[in-house]
Amino acid sequence: MALIRLLQRKPDGEIVFREPTNGDVPAYAILSHTWGKEEVSFQDAEAGIGKGKARWEKIQFCAKQAAADGLQYFWVDTCCIDKRNAVELGAAINSMFRWYQNAARCYVYLSDVSKPDTGADDQRVWEEAFRKSRWFTRGWTLQELIAPRLVDFFSLEGERLESKLSLESEIYEITGIANKALRGDALSNFSIKERRSWAEHRNTTIEEDEAYCLIGIFDVSMVPNYGEKRDQAFRRLEDEIHRMYKGVDFEQFAVGLNLASFPEATQFVAREKELSKMHELLHGHSDRTCVVLYGLGGIGKTQLAIEYIRRHKEKYTAIFWLNANDRDSLKLSFRDVAQQVLKYHPSTRLLAGGDLDDLDQVVYAVKAWLDLQKNTRWLIIYDNYDNPKTPGNLDRSAVDVRQFLPRSDQGSIIITTRSSRVSQGRRVHVQKLLDVKEGLEILSNTSERKDIAEDPGAVELVKELDGLPLALSTASAYLEHVSITLSDYLRLYKASWLKLQTTSPQLESYEDRSLYTTWQITFDRIQQQNPASASLLKLWAYFDRQDVWFELLRHANSADDEWIRKLTKDELNFNEAVALLCSFGLADAERSLQQQFGSGGGCFSMLSGKSGLY
């Protein structure tokens, strides 16, 4: 960051330059404004003739307000940069975001917003002019709004209006900038596309500045070259963004995104907490990062992975989607990857000339390509890894995903699975939607029924389906094709759940899986791994989601319940059976009740909404 030249207001009111030094920068205020005629330049201030300019009043305002806030130093862009010095100007442009970010206070002076001296603090008298202010249309003021922590808005008369924090809702409505960005969240948490959108309706006096004013927003560096024209400036900016996120050699490994290999994701609703956690775990690390999304079938793991890609695809040189349901599907997915790589890099030595029908060789070659030293910015999704080879899983078709992972410590991986026993990376538990509004959004989007938020039948149906995205989507698909009310569907649902599921239209976003088959697959896996777990689950359904514990079942003595006696022969058998149900997201340990029953009476609850399945 370049050294900053500050203005200093002396005790006698004189304003002088404090030349930049290598020492610590004192606390300072900073001005944000739109330029007009007769602004005070560096040369004017240096020659002592700035006071004769019409815009000297801005500098006086900033000095006075800084003093009121206990600050002796301040910065104004018109006169604190020697714009005749190309080196200094370039350094300032590349440092300006951080200068605003480091300021103790930022004062936004709105020359087109007046606050009449009525004696009343009424926002209505200036809000309309505030919303229409030219300041919100200028390119450079974007970073001046986002970067500083404390921002106060002032009228033409120098009267304080409100702060960025108190006007957050209005600013969002005017600019479309997310509240989290306004509050100081790291801009890397926002996609490149979203950050670009913040500047779409802003303009600059000099055409190249439309690109240069975004240097800080994307945290890149580039030398300004006035005269190169707008399009060339944006091309250079794009190159710097790619180098920043994808590496200097990104073109050597860049592969276009093949959307045909991705499942549809039309029912997604925002899971901001999970998306934020994924970004935290996957972004900004030099070594390999891996996130495991686990949860019940149909809970939205695949859609969550797709949404992450949609938001952050610009940060990766290549993104590949693999079907990890079984070994054969994985090998075929690797062949698709090989074909994608060859399409963009036909001379790739590791793949060119190879036999794409020799799937084992293809897997080896693709992994070797991913292991290349400078190929570090790829992302691979291993989807539907639902039958992992884990201790106790004797299924011969179980998959050991480690055989299909690149060996080098680089790149990023997302695994989606129903099993909580997958331990290849940092785990993110994808749970049911807790907000009724999100469930209503799925119902509305898929069924194309609008204004259902006030429909009591819709609200009751969402609650009955318990925040399960696949259940909500299945209901929506049925409602799209049948002219019945949501209350009528709820009545049918309660009367004949299975018939509704088997007759509902198939959902493209879940391939050929209906709600019934999705959970039937889970049940079959449980049956294979531990028949006692499956029997317990069926019995448990009759309890209508009531809690069960070891002591409750151990006294069963019916001749028809031999499996119960074996299950409760000792507590280890019981815990092992329930643990398998927990690993598939069908049950959970009820900690508070465990304490009531003591150490010998572990208590478990069936997760709400599952008892009707079995």
TrEMBL record:
Record-given protein name: Related to beta transducin-like protein
| UniProt organism field | Phialocephala subalpina
Cite a single Pfam family from the UniProt record.
NB-ARC
Instruction: Recall the GO molecular function terms of this protein's record.
Output: ADP binding
| NB-ARC domain ranges (all copies) | 272-450
Record domain Heterokaryon incompatibility: where: 28-118
